[in-house]
Structure to design on (694 residues):
């Protein structure tokens, strides 16, 4: 019964007694079908798509989801909810439980997230199964951009210098502003607002490249330099919104140089240096070198530490660039120094370059940590999720203070990347799922922060995670049809990388053997189980199954096996007519074909190719060995002529098989009478005689 199709069934019942005459009574029966929760809610669509402006206020309706449930009562009442475990964990959206209307809960920011994917669940109110039945739909919400971000310059201050010999069109500096909006709202154009009263510069509105507009005359520049040695330009960056948003760069300084100093120093020394923590004060740590190709004072470089040397641990000779220690170093107090060094030429104005020099202080340790055990042994199951706890190792250090605080690490070795160690506690965890078939035993060396080592011997326990694998993707074999029953025709082989019962393979056959083949479940050898007959079936296609012997969720693999049955000469030719009666007119001309015999052989090739011959030497007639045409070679001597020819049909197999037919010739004036030589023939045949025995 299905309550969703018919809720009430009504029929008539009649009761009849056995009296004479019989009497009867009628009753109407109404059967009410009660509903069960056998239908889950169904959404009208598997995926809903919507677009929402990023300035939409909370409470805005995004879309309405519709799910129906044909059940009755509470079983058909649908409630909607967002699956927070799979989507929208930050609660940007909410769905009305009854109506399915999806609404915005929080303000959006397209620049933070342009696409929201929600998983909405519809669940009915049925009590069985527990919690009711449910369905899911996906909601894809694209956030439409609005022009709510103004362009932002990459720097607050731009400073550059140009020579008084600068030609028109020379690039001075490139200012860049970016806008976090998208599309046309992120396209920025530039213009000079103020600070260039003499019109000496112009800016590319698309790329923000500032170039000289006029030739700067050296003598005029000299006079000008006494009054004003730099320009401070105000640059506006404007997006293409409507209305557009604008940012103003207030501090772009362009300085004019009377003496050309157009090359900044360039560092050629390494930005990395290492020093032991027990060196003496005054020890040479690093030689800082910067080159400036300018001549004279413009190419003379001095060195200074801008930052990173607050505790005065180092001294830098500003002329030679030699960096030495100014006090004893303690790696446990500070292991690494990042000094910002500036190389400054002596030009006016001076050009400079900076480099961050990283100095690593190497530790000196006079006590060796000692592990509590030199060899740890344990085992862990394969295929477990990363993070599986394996073992905890422990070491001690007789040093005091920071030198006694140990950190543990795994030394590089075979398979070490599959594990990770808690630096402080010494707990060893898996960093990846292990596969026993790839590597069963791991020997891991671990050490604390300095020199002591210990070994961990870890054995990975097998799980049935590999299916048997055949040596080939398909097997094909050809056998002759006279093969004896029980003959082995093919040996299959499958391997399984698992261990124990999980790796032991058993074989079986399915599909299309027609009872002709069987397989040894242990060795995989396929044998015939009955005689084959190519003329009945010339090809068998079936599947072989290799299954492991796991006691818990065994695994299996199938492979296609094709057996071609080759022909042997096991069929005699068969005449299409036997005997053959032929009427030959007495006046038939010589060399005329008077009859044709036909025979068939169901074997293939030479086994089925037939040649014809006459059993007895004959001068009147001759037969064509290929076509079976019988040709008259001499004139018939009378009108009452008659004779019988014995014709053989032989195949061309290695051991040819032959059939015989009788051809009876007579003239039209003669009536041929056929009769047996005996009225009764008797013979005895032994039981179990082979087919075809004479």
């Amino acid at each position: 019964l299905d309550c969703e199709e018919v809720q009430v069934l009504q029929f008539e019942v009649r009761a009849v007694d056995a009296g004479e005459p019989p009497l009867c009574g009628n009753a109407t029966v109404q059967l009410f079908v009660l509903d069960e929760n056998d239908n889950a809610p169904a959404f009208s669509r598997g995926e809903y798509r919507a677009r929402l402006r990023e300035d939409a206020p909370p409470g805005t309706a995004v879309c309405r989801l519709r799910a129906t449930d044909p059940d009755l009562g509470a079983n058909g009442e649908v409630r909607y909810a967002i699956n927070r475990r799979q989507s929208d964990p930050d609660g940007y959206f909410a769905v009305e439980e009854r109506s399915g209307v999806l609404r915005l809960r929080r303000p959006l920011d397209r620049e933070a997230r342009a696409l929201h994917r929600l998983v909405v669940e519809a669940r009915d109110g049925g009590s069985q199964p527990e919690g009711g039945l449910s369905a899911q739909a996906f909601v894809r919400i694209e956030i439409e951009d609005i022009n709510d971000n103004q362009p932002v310059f990459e720097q607050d201050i731009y400073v550059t210098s140009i020579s008084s010999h600068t030609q028109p069109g020379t690039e001075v500096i490139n200012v860049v502003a970016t806008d976090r909006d998208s599309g046309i709202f992120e396209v920025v154009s530039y213009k000079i607002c103020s600070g260039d009263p003499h019109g000496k510069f112009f800016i590319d509105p698309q790329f923000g490249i500032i170039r000289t507009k006029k030739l700067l005359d050296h003598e005029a520049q000299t006079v000008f330099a006494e009054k004003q040695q730099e320009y401070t330009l105000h640059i506006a960056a404007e997006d293409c919104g409507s209305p557009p948003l604008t940012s103003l760069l207030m501090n772009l300084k362009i300085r004019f140089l009377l003496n050309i100093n157009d090359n900044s120093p360039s560092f050629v020394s390494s930005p990395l240096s290492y020093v032991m923590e027990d060196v003496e004060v005054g020890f040479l740590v690093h030689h800082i070198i910067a080159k400036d190709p300018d001549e004279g004072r413009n190419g003379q470089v001095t060195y200074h530490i801008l930052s990173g040397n607050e505790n005065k641990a180092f001294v830098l000779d500003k002329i030679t660039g030699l960096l030495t220690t100014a006090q004893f170093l303690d790696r446990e107090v500070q292991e690494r120094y990042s000094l910002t060094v500036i190389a400054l030429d002596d030009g006016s104005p001076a050009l400079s370059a900076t480099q961050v020099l990283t100095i690593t202080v190497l530790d000196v340790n006079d006590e060796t940590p000692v592990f509590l055990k030199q060899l740890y042994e344990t085992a862990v199951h394969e295929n477990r999720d990363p993070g599986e706890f394996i073992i905890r190792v422990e070491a001690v250090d007789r040093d005091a203070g920071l030198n006694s605080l140990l950190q543990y690490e795994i030394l590089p070795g075979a398979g070490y990347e599959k594990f990770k160690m808690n630096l402080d506690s010494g707990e060893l965890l898996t960093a990846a799922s292990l596969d026993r078939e790839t590597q069963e035993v791991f020997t891991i060396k671990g050490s604390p922060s300095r020199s002591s080592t210990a070994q961990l011997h870890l054995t990975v326990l097998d799980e049935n995670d590999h299916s048997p694998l055949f040596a080939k993707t398909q097997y094909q074999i050809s056998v002759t049809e006279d093969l004896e029953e029980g003959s082995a025709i093919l040996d299959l082989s499958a391997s399984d990388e698992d261990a124990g019962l999980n790796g032991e393979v058993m074989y079986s056959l399915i599909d299309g053997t027609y009872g002709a083949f069987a397989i040894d479940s242990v060795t995989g050898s396929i044998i015939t189980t009955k005689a084959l007959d190519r003329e009945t079936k010339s090809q068998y296609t079936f599947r072989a199954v290799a299954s492991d012997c796991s006691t818990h969720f065994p695994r299996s693999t199938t492979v296609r096996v094709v057996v071609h049955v080759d022909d042997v000469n096991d069929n005699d030719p068969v005449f299409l007519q036997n005997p053959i009666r032929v009427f030959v007119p007495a006046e038939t001309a010589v060399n005329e074909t008077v009859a044709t015999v036909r025979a068939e052989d169901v074997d293939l090739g030479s086994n089925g190719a037939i040649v014809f011959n006459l059993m007895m030497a004959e001068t009147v007639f001759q037969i064509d060995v290929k076509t079976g045409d019988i040709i008259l070679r001499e004139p018939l001597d009378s009108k009452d002529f008659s004779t019988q020819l014995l014709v053989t049909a032989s195949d061309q197999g290695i051991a040819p098989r032959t059939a015989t037919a009788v051809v009876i010739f007579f003239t039209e004036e003669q009536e041929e009478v056929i009769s047996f030589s005996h009225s009764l023939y008797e013979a005895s045949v032994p039981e179990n005689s082979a087919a075809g025995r004479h």
Remarks:
- The chain has a mean pLDDT of 85.
- The domain at 152-217+227-257 is CATH 2.60.40.60 (Immunoglobulin-like).
- The chain has six domains: 42-139, 152-217+227-257, 266-362, 370-461, 469-566, 574-666.
